[in-house]
Amino acid sequence: MEGTTVRGGLGWRQSTLVDTIVETPRVKSLVLDVPNSLAHRAGQHVDVRLTAEDGYQAARSYSIASPPEERRLVLTIERLDDGEVSPYLVDELRVGDPLELRGPIGGYFVWESSMSGPLLLIAGGSGIVPLRAIIRHRIATNSDAPVRLVYSVRTPDDVIYRQEMDRLATSATGIEVIYTFTRVAPGGWAGYQRRIDAALLAEVCWPPESKPTAFICGPTPLVETAANILSTLGYQPTSIKTERFGPTGGP
Ligand SMILES: Cc1cc2nc3c(=O)[nH]c(=O)nc-3n(C[C@H](O)[C@H](O)[C@H](O)COP(=O)(O)OP(=O)(O)OC[C@H]3O[C@@H](n4cnc5c(N)ncnc54)[C@H](O)[C@@H]3O)c2cc1C
Predict the structure, then answer these.
(1) Which single residue of 31, 72, 104, 113 could bond 141 by disulfide (Cβ 3.0 to 4.6 Å)?
(2) How far is 34 from 46, CA to CA, in rounded Å?
(3) Is 249 a residue whose pLDDT tops 60?
(4) Residue nearest (by alpha carbon) to ligand 1 atom 40
(5) How far apart are CA 106 and CA 43, in angstroms?
(6) pLDDT for 1
(7) Phi, psi at residue 154, to the nearest 5°?
């Protein structure tokens, strides 16, 4: 992973689940109490480790959905039905249960308010998670960096943080939200209804002359497609930051 750093050492630590939020039928946010704050930056992730009674362990990475300003750490997990770890986190973990994690991890896919230029955020499915942390951090720090979020989801029911995104889209925060629905669009929808492609990004992206920074996160094919298109449109390679969530699939 590009520029990976682990602050606070590689040690595992115990957090406690204090609340859950149902985001979509397949996605849940876990609100965690972590002793001695992780002091993370917006865009970073943690590793989560499960240990079975026989000692078998499985670890996976999850982006941090909450900004550094919030006391509780929030992870947002999409259940993959044939997965080893995500079904447990979404369906089995109960308030009061411990959860082992380490981090924060990642020094490259990070936004800080000292960074100049407009922000282009591109998410596919659960790839919205670290971008939500960036958006909340942008608001909490009163940054006036213009933000354009392009959010690709399969159906309206798959929109994660829906109320928050809709609120942003209709308020004068300098944050624009552009959805594209790849399978089913809401009734009467006049917006995009296809996977992210060159024509779509050419219409919505900031011009390269405005020195934007792009953060792209989601399934590997979406991330690679969007990064290649931005490069073709004239974005500097160093201004395109990517995080790949998984080997397959896509909204
Ligand atoms: C830096 C980073 C941050 C991540 N942040 C998040 C996050 O915030 N929220 C979140 O839900 N996930 C996130 N992921 C993905 C997460 O780490 C796991 O890969 C995912 O939860 C699947 O784990 P599993 O044990 O349930 O499935 P596995 O047992 O690992 O895999 C089951 C099946 O699903 C496929 N698969 C694995 N991962 C994915 C995927 N992401 N998409 C589609 N198919 C997949 C596998 O090829 C396999 O066929 C992140 C990954 C990385 C690398």
Answers:
(1) 113
(2) 12
(3) no
(4) 246
(5) 8
(6) 41
(7) -70, -50
**Of the candidates 158, 128, 123, which has an alpha carbon nearest to the alpha carbon of residue 25?**
158
Give SS3 for 204: helix
Residue 38 has what pLDDT? Answer: 87
Is residue 51 a contact partner of residue 14, using CB atoms and an 8 Å limit?
no
Please report the domains of the chain, with CATH numbers, ordered by start residue: 13-105 (2.40.30.10), 119-244 (3.40.50.80)
Ligand 1 atom nearest 65 alpha carbon: 8
Strands (E), 198-239: 213-218
Q: Answer whether residue 129 shows pLDDT above 60.
A: yes
User: Which residue has the least CA distance to atom 51 on ligand 1?
Assistant: 245
What average pLDDT does this structure show over 223-236? 97
pLDDT band at 3 (very low <50, low <70, confident <90, very high): very low
Ligand 1 pocket list (CB less than 6 A): 45, 60-63, 76-78, 80, 82-86, 126, 129, 219, 243, 245-249
Within a 13 Å sphere around the CA of 94, how many CA atoms are in the beta-carbon half? 1
- With the most atoms of ligand 1 within 8 angstroms of its CB, the residue from 61, 80, 90 to mutate is 80
Residue with CA nearest ligand 1 atom 10? 77
Which of 107, 99, 158, 167 has the alpha carbon at shortest distance from 136? 167
Q: Could you tell me the two tokens for 192?
A: 């995009």
pLDDT given for residue 4 in this prediction: 52
